[in-house]
């Protein structure tokens, strides 16, 4: 119990201390006009206030990752708390804040465009394809997961196909309509439901005195369970997630002032860390340890854990409301995943998005591919999603490190977690069944060599980029004519 509570306190303290430090390193410019005004188009560039943006950002980034991941991570025991807390403060929140703020400085650019600018044109094309793949996996996973929860909640009286179809119809509307029509109106309400449900489960555990295990030297290394690299990929969204780098530009295009960035980007990642702590604690405390938890996971996956824990802690009515809060999580990340995919493709091919037909012809093929992927085994999709997710985080952190290096600022805040996760993701893909299936010893050596080489290459490219004085910001006049054709004058009043 004390490890859990201390971890939550550390997350909050981290926001006010390290979060402030990262903000000072980056250097906000309150007077600088944000893309929400400079490139206002009434579709994706729409100014919204801090509270609304924060709740939307939380729902954008908090899919099933901060729930399903920590539940599966609970098999590792209390060491999972350690990664959630340290990962969220020093990696995840830094990742989200820097990608969000760098995007604001570059007219709301998505990760592929930023990678192309700061890591080279080849990386733009590579990351573009990688990001689309990740977003398709996210969208598909976040259709399957809530559909399964709804099916269980309704005891199967509605056909699974109908539930999936209804979610896809919602996704189409949320992807195509202006951001303030559905996302801007309903997400703040959904965000409150998410927070209330998580606090309900957490409060229930504290009130009933649930036996949340404490971290000790004895359980720091669980028997027969290798912590590295599996733990750092299993628990992703609650500690560090590259998916967030694909989502922050949505809010970078609606943020009114750079000063709001710490609350929106760093703060909401900390909030997600708290949610992850609650569900990791529930997984450890409520099901008779790793053995009972493993049996339930084998029987019904993380969705069954969510249902059992919610009803156990909050009763039938409260538990149902908590499950609904969890169902909303993936749905409200899946829709923005498809929206991000549409925006990335539009940016890549320089296609204006004011006309709905221009949005439609990009979106429909994405949905067609995602529907096909729903027939693939969920566990296989989740493994590929986990690796693609953390690999994207590595790219985003290296982009942030390059930006800070060129700006002659403290780039280590991004490079250190980026290098650590580079080692973890490379080791995993070399060793995993979905990868090269090499022995762990060989995988560790190979990952070390690859990581050292890529970090050396980073410094070589960074010194060259600093010498060439690559511009760190893009102002409104630099907005591409193909994308600016439909942009309105930047005269929208602040809320």
From TrEMBL:
Keyword list, A-Z: Cell membrane, Membrane, Transmembrane, Transmembrane helix
Membrane topology: Multi-pass membrane protein
Subcellular location: Cell membrane
Signal sequence annotation: none
Transmembrane segments: 75-98, 126-151, 157-179, 186-207, 227-243, 264-289, 309-332, 360-381, 387-406, 411-430, 442-463
InterPro entries: CstA (IPR051605), CstA_N (IPR003706)
Keyword Transmembrane: yes
Family statement: Belongs to the peptide transporter carbon starvation (CstA) (TC 2.A.114) family.
Protein name per Swiss-Prot or TrEMBL: Carbon starvation protein A
Organism this protein belongs to: Sporosarcina jeotgali
Lineage of the organism: Bacteria, Bacillati, Bacillota, Bacilli, Bacillales
